[in-house]
Amino acid sequence: MFSLHVLLQQCVRRRCLLIGKGCHALAIHLGLATDTITCNILINLYTKCGMNDCARHVFDAMTFKSIVSWNTMIAGYTCNGDDLQALKLFSKMHQEGAQMSEFTLSSTLSACAAKFAAIECKQLHTIAIKLALDSNSFVATAVLDVYAKCNMINDACLVFEKISEKTAVTWSTFFSGLVQNGLHEDALRLFQSSQREGVQLTEFTLSAILSTCASLALMTEGMQLHAVIFKYGFHGNFFVASSLVDVYARCGQIEQAYLIFAGMKHKNVVLWNAMINSFTRHGNFFEAMILFEKMQQARISPNEVTYLSMLSMCAHAGLVEEARCYFSLLISDQIVEPNVLHYSCMVDVLGRSGKTDEALELIQLMPFEPTASMWGSLLGSCRKYRNVGLARLAAEELFKLEPENGGNHALLSNVYAASGSWEDAVLARKYLNDSGAKKDMGLSWINTKGKVHIFGCEQKEELFV
């Protein structure tokens, strides 16, 4: 039995599924098919190899399930992206009154984070408090992560403050949560405070804070972080380098961004995407297309973000035929599945170039429900090309999807005005005023003397904007 377990552990480490299956057959032959330790290793093997169904078959056949059995199966579901099954299995475990550990809760909470399951997270948080596991750094960090991803940042802050022993993962998770919720200044201040306290730096922490510098276009802070990255030897990390490229590009330093990109000996798809997106942002469309070709020559397969960047670039550059080529590549890609954002970009490309009828046809034929972004893009195109009939259709769909967004009413009014339909324009604006829908206030900001000042403009009463 010991030799069999050693061999199975070797299979787990090396992901040797074929030999592992042979060991499974031997275990059945030796009468060990229901042995708890043997089954636990087999479950671990199958989940690590992405064979959740085989793992569950072993799990269900067990006469006695230890806490390790439950934890391994739940973690397997979570790691393989089967989050719903992980939550269902935890619910079954709870109903059967099986013992739980911090690993049980942290794995299940990870499934909640992937599903943005706020209610389930609160229930698990309550269970953790009852079991006195809420102060455990693994559990508390997992709770913090779910709250932040579910836009419950105040709850996340409360959890963070109560963690007595904050690990580097805890800090990184909280930084990322603040950034995800748009609290960039808070993230930056907390990072500065953490460094004074001597908190350990990780590549994830640096990536999160660099994202803050990029979002606020903080050139000075970005350069200081660049120096810190070199000091601690993180400059060779893919994600840190990608974030640095983004910072310099957003601060207008596209040459410096490219130097960082070119200086990386090994590049992954994230880094290629960051540089392509940077060229697109600066209007260097030709360079972005060349980089896409070089990426393929380097045998780096584009992912959904790559295609999204290229289609977005074509929309802003007015490159219709090029967009068709990239979209065809995406449709024929055997690995990447087109999503609604890709279709939205293609609709934008067609609309901006005046092919509004073709854009509508694409919306009607695509395998997704049209989004507000698609209809909004189409409505905006109708203003330029004065397609009043299609504008009415797009506006009606927008009013259903975003009844509180007054900007859609104003845009429809502007379409009427552009085509000379003044009575309809006045009626559309009157409906806007009567409906109570509001336009989002325009904002601008400036960074001076180390502080970011945000300015807003009051909504004007003119008929057309």
TrEMBL record:
GO terms for molecular function: mRNA binding. The keyword Repeat applies. Keywords: Repeat, Transit peptide. It comes from the Eukaryota. The keyword Hydrolase does not apply. PPR repeats lie at residues 66-100, 167-201, 268-302. It holds the Pfam family E_motif. InterPro entries: E_motif, PPR_At4g14850-like_plant, PPR_rpt, TPR-like_helical_dom_sf. This is Pentatricopeptide repeat-containing protein. It comes from Urochloa decumbens.
